[in-house]
Amino acid sequence: MKLKEYIKTVPNFPKDGIMFKDITPLIADARAFTYATKQLSDFAREKDADVIVGPDARGFIFGTPVALNLNIGFIPVRKPGKLPRETITEAYDLEYGHAELSIHKDDIKTGQRVVIIDDLLATGGTIEATIKLVEKAGGNVVGIGFLIELAELKGRHRFKDYPIHSLLVY
Amino acid sequence: MKLKEYIKTVPNFPKDGIMFKDITPLIADARAFTYATKQLSDFAREKDADVIVGPDARGFIFGTPVALNLNIGFIPVRKPGKLPRETITEAYDLEYGHAELSIHKDDIKTGQRVVIIDDLLATGGTIEATIKLVEKAGGNVVGIGFLIELAELKGRHRFKDYPIHSLLVY
């Protein structure tokens, strides 16, 4: 199935020079969305994941179906002020801007095999913060799956120690 | 299955007087998460949904599995500045605070049967805005499904013309 047909490139969003990858046509199509989440699920299953972690908010769209397909739990990584119990927080740089992400301190058990799922790998700031959060919480990141990887931004080079699987590379 | 055992009430979050319902223990448990999304899927199927709409961000966690279960598309309603194509936007009041939500103008086809899925019905501000967005985009809201309803806030009373189904009522 040609998943790239369901991704729309929108130039200069959210600011000049950014070629934004719009995933909404893909998730609006049941066949494409099912196919993409099945591929990501196969990757997470192969890595023998105990739990799926996905960052706020598009990581929820792809991470929750993967967790349900594997019959394992889903742990959200969220923007600050959203998780009500004790959290760990990491600041990071985005392709455009700056942000923070948090995880509940007690949601991952020590040594759990964690697969991180997100929609897109750009410069890798979000994922670097997510890896740090998972590891500080005691988890073992055994794989990172993306729908899309923007290869020219070289985000992958920051994560040489982690298996990365991207369904679509631009 | 007693889903309430997987919801943690956190007092005074995000501010004094709010009894926050923490859904993260539920989604961290594969059996409870599968059960809850199956119940919401049964509701959406019964309403003969053509498409599922879910608001940013926890609506994604419950809405995407429902869309995949029914083999139909998922349309995200997002905070401003996140959707790259032409949008419609609604301002609304929250249980605590004020916000705006947007939908892509062309994502819903005229007359499509839309089921809205979200995690929680409080005062109903988010859902009122979401209904308006769906209807302005040409959709027909045939049902609204929640994991949790806070009955004392009477959000349901704002939506007398719409079938509402809540798995857990507090």
Structure, described:
The structure is a homodimer of 170-residue chains. Chain A is an alpha/beta fold and 170 residues long. Chain A has one domain (3-169): Rossmann fold (3-Layer(aba) Sandwich), CATH 3.40.50.2020. In chain A, 27% of the residues lie in helices and 34% in strands. Chain A contains 4 helices and 9 strands; from the N terminus they run ββααβαββββαββ. In chain A, the strands form 3 sheets. Chain A has a 5-stranded parallel beta sheet, sandwiched between helices. A two-stranded antiparallel ribbon of chain A has the order 1-2. In chain A, strand 1 (8-11) and strand 2 form a beta hairpin. The longest helix of chain A has 17 residues, at 30-46. Chain A is globular, with a radius of gyration of 15 Å.
Oligomer: homodimer
> Which sheet architecture does the biggest sheet of chain A show?
5 strands, parallel
Question: Percent range for helical residues of chain A?
Answer: 25-40%
The count of β-strands of chain A is 9
Spatial order of the strands in the main sheet of chain A? 4-3-7-8-9
Question: Which helices and strands occur, and which strands form pairs?
Answer:
2 copies of one chain form a homodimer.
Chain A: E1 8-11, E2 19-22, H1 24-27, H2 30-46, E3 51-55, H3 58-70, E4 73-77, E5 87-93, E6 98-104, E7 113-121, H4 125-136, E8 140-149, E9 164-169
Helix pairs in contact in A: 2-3
Q: What's the quick description here?
A:
Chain A is α/β, with parallel strands linked by helices and 170 residues long.
